[in-house]
Sequence to fold (233 residues):
Amino acid sequence: MSRLGDLLHLERTRRKLSTKEVAKLAGVSEKYLRDVEAGTKIIRDDQARRILQKMGMEQQTDAMFTLDDIAVTVDLQTAVSPERVEKTRALKQEKGEKADGSIWLDALKGVLQHVPVYNAVMKEVASRLLPVTQGKIEGAPAEKVFYFQAPDNRMRGFRVQKGDLVLVVPTQAAEDGAMMLLDTPLGKQLFVIKMLPRYQLLLQTFDTQNASEVVAMSDVHILGKCVRLEAEL
Fold:
């Protein structure tokens, strides 16, 4: 299946509707719907949303994620377990809320989170949706991690070019050989760190050539460790 096909199949089966019934409601052929659910035919986000609404799913009001986000991020068959959906259903009923067929959208909130993208002055310029495992992303509290957008080519020798995004896990501890985000008098900057004797650090950058400086560990303000790179092709 495709991810949007998964979404349609999941909602249809939760409502106990046949492909023939949904096809009639949505004004598409049954073969088209079967092909979409099987992943052999591509469907756009707006088309999938229209079919979901024809099935009776209320318009999504939570801006936490979109169908496109879900489609490229999460494996629905493992992310939305029957146990998770039933737990979500029970919680909604306890709060007196309508437990309708769109419950899987609420269930997904526990496994997806928008992670902010910050520029060099730590202004949020975008966000990325990442899977959450037991409340954590890359082993850190999900609400603490963030992306940093490389402002220049100072690190391209380490495969990070201007505009690339690095996922940062907050920490104040230096790690030998790691790329880390530091708060410096010149702003937030990326460095590869090498541990030296006598509580010193070698801060490395690499644009057209390698550059480095030795600093006292006590003079360095570390914001976090870079654990993932996202680059445009």
